[in-house]
Structure formats: structure tokens, C-alpha cells
């Protein structure tokens, strides 16, 4: 649901023909994003330190992969960050994601930057950076609560 909202918003506001998306981190989140964006016609490049991580990408993934340390600006340049319209930092390390997001925004002037942060206390570090913060745990909790409250609400209506 959130993925659809973000991609719909991005599609209407900023997408150009064959927009380039750079994703750092090929864990569960990075893999899902890479596969879906690739399937939707985006030119996707995924960077991860571990070549093993790329095995998670399904056979339908049509993008590129780069094995390397994304904190090295040369690796980001090689991946095409300077022409990327969307940059997603989806590693499991909050501070790395923040640093990468700031670099993408300030150094490379990427239009849309999204970072994954699991520790909400770190969100304040980038509030003035025009970077979208995604907290997967908070999103999951919100969806579970919505589902629970919706079910409870529907059950209460059915009894009356």
C-alpha cells in the first residue's frame, strides 16, 4: 500500500521516460523494491557489499547489480547516481542510510531520496534535508493496527 502510494506520487510528479532508480541494499526491502520497479519499466541499479545478496533477485529482475561499498562515492558514480531520478538507501544500517541519503541529495542533487531508518530517534538528523524517511517497523505496526481496528469495528457493527 505504501509502495503503491510512493510510486503513484513519484509517477505523477517526476517520472521521465525510463527513469533511473538507484537502490543501495539488496536485503528483503531492497529486493522487493528492485523487482517491482524493474517490472514497472524503471532502469534499476542495485548496489550491495555482498554478491550473495543478489541471489534474492528473481529471474524477472531486469536491472543491473554492482557489488561494492556504496559509501565510496566512486561506486555511486559508477552506478549512475548523477543521472538517477530516485535514490533509495535500504540497508540495515541506519547511519549508513542517512549518510548515503544526504550524499545523494547534497552532492549528487538526486531529485527524490528515500532512506530506511529503523530507529525513529535518528529521523531528526535529516529533517531538513528534503529526504523521505521510511520506518518499516512503524509502517507494519500501523497496518496491523488498522487491520485490527477495522476487524474489531466491523465485528462490533455486525453485532448491533
Description:
The protein has helices at residues 2-13, 28-39, 73-79, 94-107, 136-159, and strands at residues 20-24, 43-48, 64-67, 86-89, 112-116, 132-134. By secondary structure, it is an alpha/beta fold. A six-stranded parallel sheet has the order 3-2-1-4-5-6, sandwiched between helices. Strand 4 (86-89), helix 4 (94-107) and strand 5 (112-116) form a beta-alpha-beta unit. The longest helix is centred in the last third of the chain and has 24 residues, at 136-159. The radius of gyration is 17 Å and the shape is globular. Residues 152-160 have low confidence and may be disordered.
Low-confidence stretches: 152-160
Q: How would you classify the helix and strand content by structural class?
A: alpha/beta
Globally, the shape reads: globular
* Strand arrangement across the biggest beta sheet: 3-2-1-4-5-6
Annotate the secondary structure layout.
Elements: H1 2-13, E1 20-24, H2 28-39, E2 43-48, E3 64-67, H3 73-79, E4 86-89, H4 94-107, E5 112-116, E6 132-134, H5 136-159
Parallel strand pairs: 1-2, 1-4, 2-3, 4-5, 5-6
